[in-house]
Structure formats: structure tokens, C-alpha cells
Amino acid sequence: MQIKIFNTLSKEIEEFKPIKKEYVSIYSCGPTVYNYAHIGNMRSFLFADLLYRVLKTVGDYDIKWVMNITDIDDKTIRDSNPKNGNWLDAMKKSSNDPFENIRNFTEFYIDSFIDDIQKVGIDTNNIFEFPRATDHIEEMIELIKLIYNNGYAYIADNNVYFNVSKWKEYKQYGRLKKIDFDNFKKGVRIDADEYEREEVSDFVLWKNKKEEEPFWDFELDGNKLSGRPGWHLECSAMEKKFFDLPFDIHTGGIDLQFPHHEDEIAQSHAGYGIDPTVYWCHCEFLEVEGKKMSKSYGNYYTIRDLEEKGFDTLDIRFSIISQHYRTKYNFTFDGITAASKGRKRVQDFIYSLLNQSEGDEDCDVNALKEKIYSNLANDLHTPKALAEIFTFINSNKNKLFNNKSKNELLELFKELNNIFNIWEFEIKSESIPSEIIKLAEDRVEAKKNKNYSLADELRNKIIELGYSIKDTKESYELTKD
Ligand SMILES: [Zn+2]
Predict the structure, then answer these.
(1) pTM (global) more than 0.70
(2) Is the domain of 25 the same as that of 123?
(3) How many Å lie between the centroid of ligand 1 and the Cα of residue 363?
(4) Angle in degrees, CA 260, 262, 266, rounded to 5
(5) Ligand 1: distance of its center to the CA of 437 in Å?
(6) Which of 7, 121, 248, 355 is the most exposed place for a label (fewest CB within 10 A)?
(7) Does residue 458 lie in a domain region?
(8) Ligand 1 is an ion; residues with CB less than 5 A from it
(9) How remote is the CA of residue 256 from the centroid of ligand 1, in Å?
(10) In a domain, 416, yes or no
(11) Is the dihedral of CA 254, 258, 260, 265 positive or negative?
(12) First-to-last C-alpha distance (Å) of the chain
């Protein structure tokens, strides 16, 4: 089915047309690994995952998806220094080599990140590679040389800066978000990796080394430069490494539009002579109880925090992807509970299909599929797609379908689960209440003791409570009637 997606460049929903026949290329700005990812970050990764799954399942594309890992920037350097705040207790083996410290420190948060995204149902096997910035310094240096040789960078105090005013004479700067150039002061420079929109000025490509920072050396125009790359540079260099330019889709949170993505466009074009990507796709912010999430408001949550509070991480997934990605998502505990109920309603319907004996109801599964898929294909409109699913379940939950319809429905829900990834299709013993399992275990014991009347009594009790028990070679099998 034809997929349509909102492109931040055109500010319109566009028909998606892949560049290559073989596969669609997606690049997602990944985490900065100086802490556990919070649920706001998670929304952006869940959006990329949803886009991947809709393109694959509804659009029938093969996909190459790359997500970088920012393991060097202002924050990772700050917190990997054992003298600073966030150095982990578990990592007291700090060395004198800042490079070793940053690798050890970020390694811990990379592992945590992979764990967390798996918990919210992102299949990391779908991600072709998670390249780390510190493994691609050479590529970044090459890009700096290209930009410099093309005349869009200059050296000042052993730093290399991108010359925004020079670039503006050639190409637009401010393509993703309108930029107010009234405050722009030619030649004013920003060294920070992150800055506000009001602070438009020349941004740093290479930072001169500071004490206790990891650094690399290279030569540019006769100058020996010791330092490290600026944050924006890594994405431009990684995209070139993993894809032919331009590649298809670049994803990220809306907060990355400026400066990160704007600078990425400028760097890639100034260096490689071509725009990096065709479709820029951004997801909106996540708020908590209607407020910006912030440690100072006490409403800052990681996946781990929510697990400790007893929430199921797949309910968090469902809650976040149920909301359209271009609207603000308001995270509340009630919202997760509601999502959990909704998820269970669909799960119960799937179980009832799996369990039901043949009836004579017929169902036009293709028409249902068409309605659900057309909403997903239209800019990933999950709320409308889910509304179709719930409307169908509400009016069909007590029907007994003929085998053809039942099998087609199960097939459809399995396909939908390739997108939502929150339901199961085998009745596992976990879904049998523990009291029933206890009765079954007692029966095994009774049989072992040759107390067959007690065994029969226990079997009858199990049946009375709505379950069937079947003896198998190894033990027994319980099913809900
Ligand atoms: Zn990036």
C-alpha cells in the first residue's frame, strides 16, 4: 500500500517514494549515552520503530535502519570524568586515560539503552547497526577537511567553525524551522553542542582539546589540531558511511530540528555537495501530566522508574504509539492503565478466536484490513487505525466465526502485531490463574500417590472453574474453555 508521511522540509504529508529499489534507508539520531534514556527519548525511538514497522508491513519494503550512539559530547565528557557528578559507583576503576574512562562509562549506558528499548518492544535485530561516534572520528575528520576545502569552515584558536554567513550566501540555512536572523551576528561563535534557536551563529565542527578530555590529532591547512568533533558532525559523517546520499528518511524528536538537524544539512551539503536525506520526520514532545518533563518538577521518568512502579513496559509502548506521533503526548499513569485495558481487550479477542470452535459467522477480513492499513499508511495514523480495531471487536466479540474467517482474522491480528508488537498468539500457562495451576499440581501429586479419587475430584474442580486438563507424556496441559 502507498505510504504517506509528513515531511518537515515541505511541511506537508507526501507520498513516500523510495530512492532505491532494494531497500529503504532510515537514519535515526540515537541516544547520548550519559544517563538512562527517559520516556521522552523513548517516544522518539518508538516513533522510528513504528515507522519502520509500518513501512515493512503495510508498505512491504525492505529497510536498512541505522541509529547512531553519541558517546562523545559535552555531557558524556563531563560525566565520564571521575571527578564530576555522574561517575558510576560500579565503575570506580577509573583510569588516567580519559578515552578509556569515556568508553567504560558510555558502554554501561549503551547496554542499558539496548535493554530499555527491547523492553518497550523495539526489536534491535531490525537495526542494521548502532555506530558509536568514537569509532568514526576518522570519517568526521574527512568531512571537516571537505567543508574547509570547499570554503565553508575556518580555524580560530585551534577550533574549526562552520561559517554560517558564508553558507547562507549559497544555500538556505533554516530549512526545517524558520530562523530569525535578526540576532545573527556574523563571526560570533558557539562552542556548546546544544544551543537555543536564538543563538544562531557559527557552530563548532572541531573543538580544541581541554585538560582531561579525550582527543584526536589531525592536520588542516598546516595547523596541527588536537581535539574532538562537535556533536552535529557525527550524524553527517555516519550517514555518508552507511548510505548513498541522499538516503530516504531521517528521524528524530522535534527538539532536534534546530540546531542539530539544520546543522547536519549544512555540513553534509557543504562537505559532500548534496543534501543528506529526502524525508525529515520528527515526532512531537512528550509531556508529563501536562507539564514539560524535568527533574526539577519531579516528573522525570525512565523506563526503569516505571517498571519499579509496577507498570508493564509493553503497556507503555502501546500507550505511546497509540497517540499520533505529531501531537504532543501527555504521559499520565491513568493513561498507561487505560492503554493496558485496551491492549487486554484486543488480547482477549485474540484468545477467544484461538479457543473458539467453528461457528457460521462470516467476516469480510479484507475490508477490515483495508480500513486499518489505510489509516496506518496515512502518516502513521495509529489512533484511527486502533479505532477501527476496537469498533470491530466491540461488534464482533461474541460471534462464532466459520474457520475461514477465523483463520483470516488471526492472520490479520498477527500482521498487526508485527506493527504493534504487544499481543501474543499462544495460550501460555502463565495466562492460567495460579489457583488452577495449583489444582493441577495437586492432581499430579495425588496420581503419584495413587489417590485416584482425589485426582478425579481435582479434575472436576478444574472443569468447574472453566478449564480443561489433558494428560500429556511429560505432565499435563491446561486450557481455558
Ligand atoms: Zn543526529
Answers:
(1) yes
(2) yes
(3) 46
(4) 115
(5) 50
(6) 355
(7) yes
(8) 29, 235
(9) 8
(10) yes
(11) positive
(12) 39
Indicate the number of domains in the chain.
4
**258-281 pLDDT, tens per residue?**
999 999 999 999 999 999 999 999
- Give the distance (Å) from ligand 1 centre to CA of residue 260: 6
User: Is-contact 25 265, C-beta < 8 A?
Assistant: no
Q: Give the helix ranges, DSSP H, for 120-248.
A: 137-149, 164-170, 231-242
Q: How far apart are CA 69 and CA 233, in angstroms?
A: 13
Helix (H) or strand (E) holding 272: helix 262-272
How high does pLDDT run on average in the chain? 93
| 231 CA to centre of ligand 1 in angstroms | 8
Give the span between the Cα atoms of 341 and 346, in whole angstroms.
9
Contact 353, 365 (CB under 8 A): no
Residues contacting residue 416 through CB under 8 Å, at least 6 positions apart: 372, 389
Same domain membership, residue 416 and residue 286: no
Which residue type occupies 444?
A: V
Q: Report d(CA 212, CA 228) in Å as an integer.
A: 12
Amino acid in position 31: P
CA 405-407-409 angle, to 5 degrees, is 65
**Would you state the cell numbers that stand for residue 320, as one nine-digit string?**
505511546
Return the top range by mean pLDDT from 87-91, 104-108, 352-356, 370-374: 370-374
Distance of CA 28 from the midpoint of ligand 1 (Å): 7
Q: How many CB atoms lie within 10 A of CB 363?
A: 18
Cα(318) to centroid of ligand 1, in Å?
26
| CA 411 to chain centroid | 26
Q: Residue type for 193, please?
A: D
Give the Cα separation of 188 and 297 in Å (integer). Answer: 34
Strands, E assignment, 93-183: 153-156, 159-162
Tell me, yes or no, whether 362 lies in a domain. yes
Spatial CA neighbour of 440 closest among 425, 426, 460, 423: 460
Q: Give the distance (Å) from ligand 1 centre to CA of residue 257.
A: 10
Same domain, 35 and 122: yes
For residues 287 and 415, membership in a common domain is answered with no
DSSP letter assigned to residue 432: S
Reduced to 3 states (helix: H, G, I; strand: E, B; else coil), residue 70 is strand
- For residue 339, tell me if it sits in a domain: no
Q: What's the grid cell of residue 250?
A: 531521517
The rounded Å distance from CA 25 to ligand 1 centre is: 15
